[in-house]
Each structure stands twice: as C-alpha cells, then as structure tokens.
Amino acid sequence: MNRQQPSPMPSHRYRDVFARVDVPLVDRIWPSNRITEAPLWVPVDLRDGNQALPEPMDPARKREFFELMVSIGYKEIEVGYPSASATDFDFVRLLADRRLIPDDVTIVVFTPARRDLIERTMQSVAGITTDVVIHMYTATAPVWRDVVLQRDVDDLKRLITSGGEDVLEFAGDADNVRFEFSPEVFNVTEPDVVLDICDTMTTLWDASPDRPVILNLPATVEIATPNVYADQIEYMHHNLGRRESVILSVHPHNDRGTGVACAELAVLAGAQRVEGCIFGNGERTGNVDIATLALNLHAQGVDPMIDFSDIDRIRRVVERANGIEIHPRHPYVGDLVHTAFSGTHQDAIRKGFVAHSRDAARRGVAESDAPWAVPYLPIDPADIGRSYDAVIRVNSQSGKGGIGYLIESAAGLTLPRRLEIDFAAAVQRHTDGSGAEVTASELWTLFLATYARATDADGRSVSVVERHIRTATVDGQTLNVVLVEWTAGAGARWAMGVGDTVESAATSATAAAEVMAREHQPSDASLRS
C-alpha cells in the first residue's frame, strides 16, 4: 500500500518532454541491440569541463591533462575554445609550436558560427600537420531560438549555413582538417528542423566516406528518460542523408543523473562516437562520465580501448587539473567503491575470493586471467590497479567473515570458524562503544589484547579442548602461532600463544589460557554474596 501524500512542490510549472518536443515514433531496433565494441571516445575536459570550473586550468594543468589522455589511449581530444580566451588560444598554440600532438591523435577545436571567431579558431591551429577537427555549434531548440538568438527557423538556418561556408573558406583546402557540427540542445529541437539543418551541413561540407562529417547530437540539458534520447538518436541514424559519410556522435549531460544510461542507449541506437569528461566534470551536474562508460564495457567483457589499469594515477591528474576531489562513492574510482562493511557482503566476498583462487588453480591459469565471479565486486579491483586491502573494512555492521579476512590480511593468520565467531563478538563490543571503523592493524592489536596474555602472571588450571597450529607474519617476521580452545568448567574460550617454535607457542597459549581463567574466576566476595 502506498500512503504517500501530495507534496507542496510546484510541479505544475513544468512540462514533460512530450509536451515540449515531438518525439519521433520509430520502429525501435535499439532495445534488441548489444554493444560489442567501444565507440570513439572524445574527452572534452579541456574545453567543456574547463569552462565549468570555478578556477579554469592554467596551461601547465592543461598540458598535464592532455598528456595523460594521450598516454592512456585517447585518439581524439577536444583541446579548447580558442576564440573564447587568450588562455585557450595560447594552449592550442603551445601544442602546435612544441609539436606535442602525436601523429595518431586528432585534436578538436570549438567555435560558434561567427565569421570572426571561426577565423580566430583557424589561426590557433595554423601550422598543425596532424589531424584537426573544426567543431562548429549553434543552439537550435525553440526556447534558445526565441529567447537567446531571437531568430526564426529560416533565419537560424541561414546563420548556420553562413558559418559553415566560413569554415569551408578558411579550412576547406586543408587535407588534415575535418568538420563537426553540433545542433546544441538537440534533444529539445523539433526532429524535422534538426534533420534538415544536419543534412544541409553534410551537403555543404560535401561529406564523403574519405572525409566524413561529425554530427554531434547533444543532450545539452537532460529533460527525459534515457529511452527518449535513444529514440531521437535512432530516428537521426535512420533518416540522415549521406549516412555512410557521417560519424554520428552524442554529447549527454547529467542533469537527471542518467547521462551514462543516455550514452549507452544512444550507442545501441546507432551512435559511433561519445563526447564526455573523464569522471564526469562539466556544467551544472556534469558531462557524461566517459571513464564509467569505458569501464562498464570492460565489466561486460568488451575492450574499452582506453587503459585504466592505473586508475589512481588518472584520478590524481584529474583532481589536480580540475581542483575538485572525486566523491568516495564515484563508480570505479571512488575510495569506497570496492569496500564492504556489511557482514553478509564481507562473507560472500571472502568466499568468492577462495572460490576464484580454486577456479584459477583448476584451470591452470593465473588468478588475474581466470574468469571473474566474486559476489558484490563487478570487476576485479586489480584490473584498475587497486589492491584488495580496502575491499573489506570493519565497523559495527561487520561480520565474522570480514573480520577473519582482515586478520588474515594483516598477519596471514587463518582463524578457525568458532574463533572467528568469538572474536566477532569482541569486535562488535569494541565498535559499538567507539562508533568508529577499525583498521586491519587495529584489528590485529585488538585480537592480541583479547587472546594473548603475559605468561608470568598467576594462572588457573584449564582443560584444552582443541589446539590449532598456524603461522603469522608480523613486521616482516614469520612466527609460530598456536590457538587453543579451552575450558575451566563453564563454557569454552580461546587463547593464543606465539613462539619461535611450535612447542614454545603451545606452552605460551596454554599459559595465556590459565591467566585468562584466573581473570574470569569469580572473586571470593562475589561467591559469598
């Protein structure tokens, strides 16, 4: 039963997408498609991401970021908006003059459809012999036409065509230059209007398989569920003229929190290229996160064609460039994304690790090559350069499995199951009292405080129920450990001993049990009462 009541929110002020734009009815093919290869990724951090920063990047931060992108495999990179600022212009000139662009990397420069700004943009790339894309944009949606540009559709089309002619005039004869057009706010533009403008541009620029034109269709401001965007992309995919000479590109933003889903469904619907930012920086709630998109493919067995095997190095550069820390729950890269505090999750992960190790041994392959099937971990943290140290962490929500795993991680000591249960109760009491997380080293200290004793104190005779011989590695030194389950007449308890030999460790464990028995013996006063 749903007992929710109407809220005081003024929702009546807003219209749904179907009241704002014609969503074309298509014979949908995209729901049956599968993504079997990576699209062309185009990071726009140095332009779209940069213009969203409270403190835009200086040339040094831009250069470090650019070099990172190149090093991990991006082959097309939007490097700036040269006509917008001297900093952006100078950065493009830095790339040109110092020959920092590898032969197999295409740079993209962004410009409005204005002759003077197009000319300035072309000046920024003068002398570059590697591939260059001139990316021209104009907003096409009704609100932008009416409020911002104050032009009707025909007038807007003339503006865009004039800009396209200027691009041709300044760059048409350059063999290394290709063209891109973005009808900004595509997702709230009438389908027939945007289709006509896009076809006009591909005709003007004479798109061909040898010199394809990029048509980039942005969800500049998210306004609908991702399936609507997929329908819009599929409509364009099936109706564009010169389709074999067009690279169909998408540029989702994340206003509704569904930018990743929009991009994935758009690729199912026919998109071949995705613009976005590494870890999702950008205006308002950000551009689509192309790192998450890439690693989602990796998690489905598809090569993302970008190397995220040292994700923490990538993170450090991105954080330094943007001056913004990445959230600890951010997919794949956050500090806590591979961490389990819950006892049931910890137990499943620990058992999954054991099963994975056995499966690798059975197959005769390294664990890093064996199929991955560990509960609660979509990918192996080692794939992206993470260790297993932070996978299981202990707080008041944790269970015996996670606690046993951390003791094994901290000291290489495998606990008997009954001892795991006993120690879990001690940890629960500790964390309930402190309210804080317990690290692996703190857990080991608590373990010693709970089960080890100085053996020179007076003790009380005990009966040893069971003895377990183990080894532990502490501060680089391997020691013999004996764990004993003991009783002094009322219930079983545990003690431990450490020694250079098994015999000395066993003696120490028995002596510790006797001291603990004395600690738990009722006092004479309590007996008299």
UniProtKB/TrEMBL annotation:
CDD domains: DRE_TIM_LeuA. This is 2-isopropylmalate synthase. InterPro entries: AIPM/Hcit_synth_CS, Aldolase_TIM, LeuA-like_post-cat, LeuA_allosteric_dom_sf, LeuA_N_DRE-TIM, PYR_CT. It holds the Pfam family IPMS_D2. Belongs to the alpha-IPM synthase/homocitrate synthase family. LeuA type 2 subfamily. One of its GO terms (molecular function) is 2-isopropylmalate synthase activity. GO terms for biological process: carboxylic acid metabolic process. NCBIfam families: PRK03739.1 (NF002991). Keywords: Transferase. The lineage of its organism: Bacteria, Bacillati, Actinomycetota, Actinomycetes, Mycobacteriales.
